[in-house]
Design goal:
The protein is an alpha/beta fold. The protein is about 45% helix and about 15% strand. It has one domain: 3-Layer(aba) Sandwich (Rossmann fold), CATH 3.40.50.2300.
């Protein structure tokens, strides 16, 4: 278990009321992992938690980047990315950097998933712009909690941006 996963439900500001769980109607999620079994496990957990979810899969970051760009061009954009850190061809951190450098994709929420809970990997993911991080193995409730936190944070950021515009 990631040393910080047990702190996830705790708000930094106790007086701030939590947002309600995010509504996920037909969200399109890209699951990226070089191990097919892990992609199936994550996809299954997503289906278990979200019910109405469209899932695309990629075996590495290079494949994922192509899929992200083609889905955007086809008018069926990916709305959330769940990616492993360690993969051949293009790892998850590099994929994340490419997403953040691409104007049409930089807004995408990205959840990093890895078996490594080292400080270096967590910091690299944070510096690259990860919206969240979970350590394998995890369950459906942990995945849902992270999705809710990330999407609620994005929703709040959009509200603040709209209010200041």
């Amino acid at each position: 278990m990631c040393p910080t996963n047990h702190l996830a439900p705790i708000s930094r500001f106790a007086f701030v009321e939590e947002e309600p769980p995010f509504n996920f109607p037909n969200i399109h999620v890209l699951v990226v992992d070089d191990i097919a079994t892990m992609r199936r496990v994550v996809s299954s957990l997503l289906r278990e938690e979200l019910r109405q979810v469209r899932i695309s899969e990629a075996a590495d970051g290079a494949n994922a980047l192509q899929l992200l760009k083609s889905a955007e061009a086809d008018g069926r954009p990916v709305e959330f990315v769940v990616t492993d850190c360690n993969m051949p061809n293009m790892d998850g951190i590099t994929l994340l950097r490419k997403i953040r450098e691409t104007p049409d994709l930089q807004h995408l929420p990205v959840l990093m998933v890895t078996a490594e809970a080292t400080k270096d990997v967590i910091l690299a993911a944070a510096h690259a712009g990860a919206d969240g991080y979970i350590v394998k193995p995890f369950n459906a409730a942990t995945l849902r909690l992270k999705l809710d936190q990330i999407l609620n944070r994005k929703r709040s950021q959009r509200r603040l941006a709209a209010a200041s515009a």
